[in-house]
Amino acid sequence: MTNLVSFHEAFSLPAHLHANTPAEHRGNDRSDVKLLHTERKSGRIQDHTLTDLTELLQPNDLLLFNRSRTIPAQLVSETDNVTVRLARQLTETSWEALILGKDKTVVQLQDGVTLHVQGDGSEAPLKRVTFHGLHEPVLSFLHKYGEPIRYEYINTPWSLESYQTVFASVPGSIEMPSAGRAFSWKLIHQLKQNHIQVGFLTLHAGISYYEDNQWPDPLHHPEAYMIPAETITAIHEAKARGGRIIAVGTTVVRAVESYAKNKHSHQGAWKDTTNLFIQRETPLQLVDGLLSGLHEPHSSHLELLRAFLPDDALLSSYQHALQNNYLWHEFGDVHLML
């Protein structure tokens, strides 16, 4: 395997492995998901459950979570027969957005609000749009009339709360940073009882799919992030104690490695925007392991995973996941590369 095209040709995702129901509605708890563990050094593959993390991790390891909260970023105009998926905020009222349906320069929304198309976005098919006629903050309007972005494999209108992690506290993600979704406070407490450290940062995740087999190019899709001072301190202290930094989700990898690239020794809070595209050749400066969901063949997330595993180990892991009925997407199972 030498690129994502060949990875795509190596496997396809059968319909029954699309997770369309949150784990707590399939089992007893949101932590009732399977965990596929691929050892980075040996390539050995093992089957676990997420709660086995208390045994798989070691004291002084630091588990880093993204606490960004999902916003209801999809608006539907029944008047114009148009669906708008916000992709990235530019100013208070200006956004990049994906517009599905009729080709419109002005989209009629609720309460007399209109959305004006100003031009092309950072990459096709995104457009730059501006809200007009608002009498409240955009976020307030979205919470009145918006809904979470749901893709075709979801056949139930799950509530916005279904698209939140238990620790989500900073609104801004277009789509849920889903690797942390399966964690409950009970599990986090058990990890801390085992002297496994826990830290948080914020990276507002953008849209992940443009429809019609088009995926965002990370180089054209910058995302804002913030790492609190206490988390930066925890990273450096964990390293000094010989602990490992395990990112929960690709968003955390992007934030931490962006920080490392720009200001490795900085000790205070760090806030920036990143378009870092982590690939197989990208050296990882701080992150030692990754807990992630399972990704579709064309997803750019797979390129980031190649920084953690050789191609043959990554492909073997995905083939194992397919053969053993692991579930994909935001309500699915997880993959630990450590």
From TrEMBL:
<protein>
    <submittedName>
        <fullName>S-adenosylmethionine:tRNA ribosyltransferase-isomerase</fullName>
    </submittedName>
</protein>
<keyword id="KW-0671">Queuosine biosynthesis</keyword>
<dbReference type="InterPro" id="IPR036100">
    <property type="entry name" value="QueA_sf"/>
</dbReference>
<dbReference type="InterPro" id="IPR042119">
    <property type="entry name" value="QueA_dom2"/>
</dbReference>
<dbReference type="Pfam" id="PF02547">
    <property type="entry name" value="Queuosine_synth"/>
</dbReference>
<dbReference type="InterPro" id="IPR003699">
    <property type="entry name" value="QueA"/>
</dbReference>
<keyword id="KW-0949">S-adenosyl-L-methionine</keyword>
<dbReference type="InterPro" id="IPR042118">
    <property type="entry name" value="QueA_dom1"/>
</dbReference>
<keyword id="KW-0808">Transferase</keyword>
<keyword id="KW-0963">Cytoplasm</keyword>
